[in-house]
Amino acid sequence: MGLVLKVLNRVLIGLAGVLLVAGGAAVLVGAFDLQRRWEMSLPSGWPFDGPRDVIATRAEQTQWRGEGWWWPAVIVGLAVVVLLALWWLLAQVRRRRLRELVVDSGGGEEAVLRGRALEEAVCAEAEALEGVERALVAMLGRRTAPEARVGLTLAPHASPAVALARLDGEALEHARVSAGVGRLPVEVRLRAVRHRAERVG
Fold first, then answer.
1. How far apart are the C-alpha atoms of 176 and 192, rounded to whole Å?
2. DSSP string of 139-201?
3. Tens of pLDDT along 84-114?
4. Residue 201 above 50 pLDDT?
5. Candidates 1.20.210.10, 3.40.190.150, 2.60.40.1260, 3.30.70.1350; correct CATH number of 100-192?
6. What is the value of pTM for the model shown?
7. E strands of 65-158, at which residues?
8. Where in the chain is the domain with CATH 3.30.70.1350?
9. List of residues 6+ apart from 72 with CB closer than 8 A
10. How far apart are CA 130 and CA 133, in angstroms?
């Protein structure tokens, strides 16, 4: 699923780029009347022939409004576009979330570790660290090559360096051992709890 989404993303971005470049070039050529200034020969189907040209004339814009199928077709088409956009957006959010990890249990046998269970264990251990108010953990990547994304909310007087060192040396080290991997790439995001200014003296 992750590979399919990655390919789909690249294809969509490539198509969007081509369409934007082509549309921008057509608008610029027509708006600045470059075909006449530079004596260019444009294809017969070129959309803009001069600065006063429009994408669609008023007659072209209204020719289908009197047909009974027009508005239902427009509504269905827009609904399909919205649903596809929502599906794509949700797929980006959930595309790399690991459901399970493959762990070598020794003797050539493999065990399966639920990604959610590992997330909860790392989260609980991270929140138990001194100076950490809240933690959010997501396991990403592939079943045999997991990655982690960690968000820590630190107490007002906590040291980020100390929190990171303890997170790596304790919670993440235990996750590496549990997953049976020697390397666990991690992205950590830190934020501090807002607090009111204190009066001294």
1. 27
2. EEE-SSSEEEEEEEEE-TT--HHHHHHHIIIIIIHHHHHHHT-S---EEEEEEE---PPPP--
3. 888 877 776 665 677 888 777 666 677 888 8
4. no
5. 3.30.70.1350
6. 0.51
7. 100-106, 109-114, 132-141, 146-154
8. 100-192
9. none
10. 8
**Longest CA pairwise span in the chain (Å):** 82
Cα separation of 131 and 157, whole Å?
7
CB 122 within 8 A of CB 137: yes
Instruction: Check the CA dihedral 57-60-62-63 and report its sign.
Output: positive
Residues 42, 20, 60: CA angle, nearest 5 degrees: 65
**115 with 98: CB under 8 angstroms?**
yes
Give the separation between CA 103 and CA 181, rounded to whole angstroms: 8
Q: How many residues does the chain have?
A: 201
Residue 180's beta-bridge partner residues?
none
What are the CA-CA distances from residue 130 to residues 159, 175, 192, 193 (Å)?
A: 10, 19, 14, 14
